[in-house]
Design goal:
The structure is a single chain. The protein is 38% helix and 14% strand. The chain contains 9 helices and 10 strands. The protein has an 8-stranded mixed sheet, sandwiched between helices. Strands 3-4 form a two-stranded antiparallel sheet.
């Protein structure tokens, strides 16, 4: 890449970033703009609602981009409804006349033990993360497919690997990863690519989560156990939203034009590529399987060497129910 093009990798492109009023989404919006993209900054949250200093946080980020010489417009519609998602997409066409990039980042958290979680908390989290990602892709994809190019980045989470007291969030986030693979296969033939990230960063949502009554059983490190990536050696893994944005924006550039349907880890100084699920062992039996044959063969050959990796070790507060 020539020196004059550095810092303008996305010149002429138009991007939508949902949940861009703060945290990871804000950092993504700022870097997209710095690379030349025109950005729709979407967020529903309003700070100090009803007060004299009430402010829509999406408008604040859009103003920040414009003050730095970029182009941006704010949008306050909710991704959790089909109508809201359609309005967000239409705002990009109205403001900038085209659309090239969608970053699904909007989210929320409502932790609770699974045996105490109510329907509202389940629905609100799944609607925002999973339905919201679907709704945005639903209205973005015809535009991208017709022009024969485009990028969709979905935001998953390590919590999707299993996170106690976060079943709504975990289910929604892992659903987002499955959605990513499906969209990549479906839209790749039209030149549209779709990838996902599992970021780890100290955001406002994470800070708020730390103030809840569920904190003793909330640690992702403890929840994932041996499946946790943890901190490997001298690599500093602590990081903020600004450490996530470069990978996401890079995935939107032509440098990643051959990357489709993959899931990435990003935290602090480290990035990584997750493996795709695979069948690790299989057995065939003429005539199919019954309980006796499963006792005899499957226990010995298929699952005989498995251990209970999801123990309560490290969760003393959960060992006694009630």
């Amino acid at each position: 890449m020539s020196e004059q093009n550095r810092g303008r990798r996305l010149a002429g492109k138009v991007a939508i970033v949902t949940g861009a009023g703060r945290g990871i989404g804000r950092s993504e919006a700022l870097l997209l703009a710095a690379e030349g993209a025109r950005v729709i900054v979407n967020d529903v949250f309003i700070e100090n609602r009803g007060g004299a200093d009430e402010a829509q946080i999406a408008s604040n980020v859009a103003a920040e981009i414009r003050a730095a010489g970029g182009e941006a417009a704010a949008n306050g519609d909710s991704v959790a409804s089909m109508q809201g998602a359609e309005r967000i997409v239409n705002s990009a066409l109205r403001e900038f006349g085209r659309l090239d990039i969608l970053i699904n980042n909007a989210g929320n958290v409502r932790p609770a033990n699974i045996y105490e979680m109510n329907e509202y908390d389940w629905d609100r989290v799944v609607q925002t993360h999973l339905k919201g990602a679907f709704a945005m892709i639903r209205f973005v994809s015809p535009i991208l497919c017709r022009q024969g190019s485009g990028v969709i980045i979905n935001t998953g989470s390590e919590s999707g690997l299993g996170h106690a007291t976060m079943s709504n969030y975990s289910a929604a986030k892992e659903g987002v990863v499955g959605l990513t693979r499906s969209v990549a296969r479906e839209l790749g033939r039209f030149g549209v690519r779709c990838n996902a990230i599992r970021p780890r960063a100290l955001t406002q949502s994470v800070q708020n989560l730390g103030q809840t009554a569920f904190r003793p059983s909330q640690s992702l490190e403890r929840a994932l156990g041996k499946f946790s990536l943890g901190n490997r050696g001298a690599i500093r893994t602590e990081g903020g939203p600004e450490h996530v944005a470069p990978l996401v924006v890079w995935l939107c550039t032509d440098a990643a034009k051959n990357v489709n349907g993959r899931t990435f880890y990003v935290c602090g100084d480290e990035i990584g590529l997750f493996s795709e699920p695979e069948l690790i062992c299989s057995l065939s039996r003429a005539g199919g399987w019954d309980l006796d044959s499963l006792d005899t063969y499957a226990c010995e050959r298929l699952i005989g060497n498995l251990t209970n990796d999801f123990t309560l070790e490290g969760y003393p507060e959960l060992k006694k129910f009630g």
